[in-house]
Amino acid sequence: MKKLFVSALALAFSITLYAADIPADFSAANRLYAQGKFSEAAKAYDALLQSGARSAALLFNAGNAEFKAGHLGRSIAAYCRAEQISPRDPELRANLAFVRNQVQGVTRRESRWQNWVSTLTLNEGAALTATFFWIVLALLIARQIRPALVAKLKTLTRVFGGLALVSGLLLAGQAAAHFSTASAICVADNVAARTGPFEDAQIIFTARDGAELSVLGRREGWVQVADAAGKIGWMPAKQAEVIPGA
Which residues pair with 219 in a beta bridge? Predict the structure, then answer.
């Protein structure tokens, strides 16, 4: 259900269909892409997304089409949403990095910690932490029931205890990102960030198509953002797509 991939000059195209029940609209959008009608394909994918359809493959293909249509911000937004569903997909991560590198001007970059944390979904992080916790609990119970096993299970208990601690810290980082962090991705070029949420307010800075900004607040029709240099301003919500934390 994906098509791709990154090269230094362009995103090459291939279609791999591995599901027998792919919706007709999705297939039609894929055909538009194959015919080089990238803007039409992007609109077709967006129509599917607006209807409530959601999958990593659909968002991935939408990101490809938006990039080929020259819409860096919309491409990055689609890839980011796909990454939240399929965070370890190597093709997706490669395409996202490739398109991000095309963005001009100041933009926010993920730290190594954020990049590492994002390799798991929040549900996966919770499941991993719970698994390690229950293993440690089982080992402690076994040591209580069979004192003769204490020496044999000592190292194993420490290992899984350490894994439970590390995975718990990872889960805390994921939760913080998910519930308190959001990004605004500019989907137009030279978007003005102003001192207040109104059109005649003074311009503080402008952001290029695809720039990723931190969201600080929202007001009807406006979003307050901060760029990578720490400048804060208000920009029209219609010119930025807000992506919640991973």
Answer: 222
Instruction: Report the pLDDT value the prediction gives residue 205, as an integer from 0 to 100.
Output: 94
Query: What secondary structure letter does DSSP report for 204?
Result: E
CA 109/CA 195 separation, integer angstroms: 24
What pTM does this model have?
0.73
Q: Which two tokens stand for residue 102?
A: 């095309």
Residue 96 exposed, middle or buried by CB count within 10 Å (0-12, 13-18, 19+): buried
Q: Tens digits of per-residue pLDDT, 88-134?
A: 899 999 999 999 999 988 787 665 555 655 666 777 778 888 999 99
87 φ/ψ angles, rounded to the nearest 5 degrees: -70, -15
Beta carbons of 70 and 208 less than 8 angstroms apart: no
Question: How many other CB atoms sit within 10 Å of the CB of residue 113?
Answer: 11
Rounded to 10°, the helix 38-50/56-68 angle is: 150
238 DSSP 8-state letter: G
**pLDDT tens per residue, range 149-161:** 888 888 888 998 9
Instruction: Show Cβ contacts of residue 81 under 8 Å, excluding neighbours closer than 6 positions.
Output: 59, 243
Residue of 198, 237, 192, 246 whose CA lies nearest to 217: 237
- In the chain, the amino acid numbered 79 is Y
Please work out, in degrees rounded to the nearest 5, the angle formed at the alpha carbon of residue 237 by the alpha carbons of 231 and 240: 70
Contact 211, 221 (CB under 8 A): no
Beta bridge partners of 3: none
Contact (Cβ atoms closer than 8 angstroms) between residue 79 and residue 59: yes
CA separation for the pair 15, 34 (Å, rounded): 8
Bigger pLDDT: 192 or 169?
192
